[in-house]
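Researcher: Going back to the complex we discussed earlier. I've cleaned up the inputs and rechecked each line, so this should be the final set. Can you rerun the prediction on the complete assembly and write out the structure?
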Amino acid sequence: MAKINLNMITQRAIEEGVAMEKGKTTPDYFEACSIIEMNAEDIKKLGINPNANVRVISESGEVIVKAVVGRQTCYPGLCHIRQGVWANQVVPPRTQSTGEPQYSGFPVTVEPAEYERIKGALELVQGACGLWKGDE
Amino acid sequence: MAKVITGVGCPYCGASCDDIEVTVSDDGTKVLEVKNACAIGNQVFHHASTPGRITSPRLRQPDGTYKEISYEEAIDRAARILVNAKKPLIYGFGSTNCEGMSAAGRVAEKAGAVLDNCASICHGSSFLAIFDNGYPSCTLGEVKNRADVIVYWASNPAHAHPRHMSRYSIFPRGFFTGKGHMGRKIICIDPRVTDTARVADIHLQVQQGHDYELFNAFRTVLHGGDIPDMVAGIPKEKILEAAGIMKKARFGTVFYGMGLCHSDGRNHNVDIAISMTRDLNEFTKWTIMAMRGHYNIAGPGVVWSWQFGFPYCIDMTKRDLVHMNPGETSSVDLAMRDEVDAFVNIGTDAGAHFPIPAVQHLKKHPWITIDPNICMASEISDLHIPVAVVGVETGGVVYRMDNVPIQFKKVVEPAGGILTDEELFDKIYERMCELDQEA
Amino acid sequence: MGEYLIKNGFVFDPVQGINGDKSDVALKDGKIVETTALSSGATVIDASGMTVMAGGVDIHSHVAGAKVDVGRLLRPEDKLFKSPKKTGKVSRVEMGYSVPTTFKTGYDYTRMGYSFVMEAAMPPLEAPHTHEEMRDTPIIDMAAMPVYGNNWFMLEYLKNGEIENNAAYSAWLMTATKGFAIKVVNPGGTEAWGWGLNCTTIHDPVPYFDITPAEIIKGLIETNEYLRLPHSIHLHPNNLGNPGNYETTLETLRLAEGYSPKSDFGREQVLHNTHLQFHSYGGDSWGNFESKAKEVMDYVNQQKNLTIDLGCVTLDETTTMTADGPFEHHLNGLNHLKWANTDVELETAAGVVPYVYGKNVKVCDIQWAIGLEIALFAKDMMRTFLTTDHPNAGPFFRYPRIIKWLMSKQSRDELLHSFKWADRVIAATNLESIDREMTFNEIAQMTRAGPAKALGIAHMYGSLKPGMNGNVAVYNINPEHMPADPDEIEKAFLRAAYVFKDGVMVSRDGEILATPPKLALWVNAKVPENAQVRRDIYEKFRKYYSVNLENYPVRDELAPNQRVIELDITA
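Model: Rerun complete. Updated structure for the full complex:
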């Protein structure tokens, strides 16, 4: 299975902003934030079609998201997950002694995970804290 | 008769637009229509009067579910948690007014807490750079009236500050800038082809994490030195062209964002941005401004500087003196080192915006969330206390990204008798004093 | 509220002509009263062997607002080693040194026996910030002066000679910002700084607006007198801090000739020149830098319609901050430390640069001498006020040290002769040859009676006359037995034995005992309805400001205890 190493960043997007204000448990927030944007070349390297799910693994965690090319193009080798719950599953908490985690510029490995489910925001965060009871 | 309220401040991003028109229902409880706001601001106003708002505090039960409790009980529990903790952390404040920040400051001092705000994971690097190098800046109206060159460096207002370009920087016609965007040159520096890059005259697609090098090249060129053919992925000619435009400006502003603060180098990236601005002032007039994220995230830096002398990461555990040392007294670092034994999340969502390992560490101890809405923090905390939405259900002073104070208005009554942040913190303070006397 | 009888102190009250007489001061219901008005239950304070004065009045100090807070934020090191530990029950933590927190500011002024402080510069757009900080500064009453000297409305009205329109606008701005007086900082020069330029003489035209600083100053004097404001214009002239600038200063002061005060509040001046020390320099380089205090004060002494404050250099590490944006940029070019600047749309600017006045730096020592010389050459101490332009020339808690230097030739000579370049400093100044030692009465004039009169608040502050606000300071120093060690003078004035504010004992031997409500003073001047100015305001906000006109005026919540001085010039 194809695996690629990318440099990941996470930043704001207007879709994320709108959805966040609507509520982080809404489908809008899920749609807006559970995606990874990368260059079309990199998607090709993964041997997947756009909109397929991938697993993103960093030094501090992993997360399943949907791979897209996105409107705000990344150059090959760079990828972006919009700021929020999914990105923060893999953002390293190291701060270079500044207080600020490594939100931008950390290595991730991306691999196809077409048959894996993307977890919801509550499932991810409550799950990480032992509070997730499953969908009711 | 529906009532139209004008000059309303928008409680979303650091542009803190105060020209919003909100139409509210006859009884003053519901937002009907919002004009002038961006898509996000629009949502903030409408969301506040969506049915299903949480209106009473909730306490986590042993089976993991929430039970509604009275404000009185919630205040008592919060006070006890703060009194009993050795090193509580009170963090957030991206979305509240200065009155709330001030009241929280008094609680933190009383509790011997660490008091921190979202700058800690956002523009904290800017503070570190300012401590070292200063901050030649201006208000946003200066940019509108004078600026003929605008640089957006590692910031993407098209997404993060949707009306920034139209209200303040690229498009408005000001006193000396009657031609609007026709009279301005826009330079965007970003590793992605962002929507902001698309409206710029020049886009330098810098290699991610190499901003420092590029600033260095600009400084070298400004001082008349030579640079390699390619720096940080940008050809020399492009750098010379951009530097030439900057040097010839009558009035220029660098707006920079998270791309500098969150990448390797952190405060050093901001530091050299400031140095470049200082260099440019040897030739003409230049200013620099941090694109602060939230409508009042400049607020805690302002309020706590006048109360404690420091803008963030304020450690009050010694009680008779306070100190600040980001890296040591910053929220994420404290969390990762397991140094705090209680956590108050106020006006932010650490559950969604901290790296998940930091959330897991904090969750080992009592976690209180003070927030109007259901968010990730509220859904993992032990105690959730809802409060009024600032800018919608209560007014107050907020500081825009340029540190200009804006007096926000209330547009509707708080849902179901909810307290404001200020009222809540004052009550917690009073309860702490009572507990002190009982002891 | 208790009653107090402060018994047997040596009382100094220049307003009543009481010059060290042993007498009693009575306090009741927040006011000073006749001793006969007290009930038998009044608490007696034994002040025998001590000095009693009215609460101090500071006419010029940067203590609250945007640039002050930039100074705090910019300098974490200002807190290091220098912040006292919190003591006492009612107080908050006290952080900072040259730019203390609001809490420390209120406590330290109180400890020195001060009861009123004028914030020296309030950018109108940022007035809510100034008021928020004043609200959070405990105990002391305050007011703030909005800065006018580079305001676009003003530049346009005065260019066209429209004094009435400028007055209508000025009154509107005063009310909108809850301001107290017309502050002018580097007139025209700060607007020029919008383009990185400056006006260093009073004849340099302001870019685009094509008006000169001289025209601005005269126009603002006329505006001020038209409005009959309690205070005169409060001027920081052009060309601050440069060798040879005394000529600019004299030229500036001459602009006031022929104007006489029109005000019902008792002031006699039409122009207050603030921090005169920074404007009394001779020479044409830092090499031949010298004092021109005598030349400047010879002129000031002759002109009854001028008042001044000192702006004494105290030889400390401090933080400079001023609406004189181009000056801070220039200063930064000299010391290369960090530099903060904020240009404020349509109104003003501000810069902040840390500065170390080194004891063994010749220029700093000369500056120190000039500050003292200005006081010592002054003939009328009711027109000469003690300031450090806090924190620019030094922190305000050095006032007691300045009092020591003014009262003791021995103490200033000892310091003068200890300088590394003492000979050169002595050659460039007059200080060594001056024998004058200030009296307690003169100190009371410089720190209370005088500034209260110049500000137009002498009906509330600056005297111990019955009916005045109940603000009293009792200093543990005996004028009949002056201490052999001059340092005792400083000690006594730094920590008053007793301080009363509005009749409440707020401090004893430096310990803060109570934090009663404090007042915000501001001036509400009613002018004839002026449709043109109203339209101009509407238009400028619509086109050029970045904030909404509705949200510009300071709301009442930000100044919870207001004392509004009402003026009506329509009558």
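Model: Worth noting: The domain at 58-133+144-455 of chain C is CATH 3.20.20 (TIM Barrel).
Researcher: Good, that matches what I expected from the previous run.
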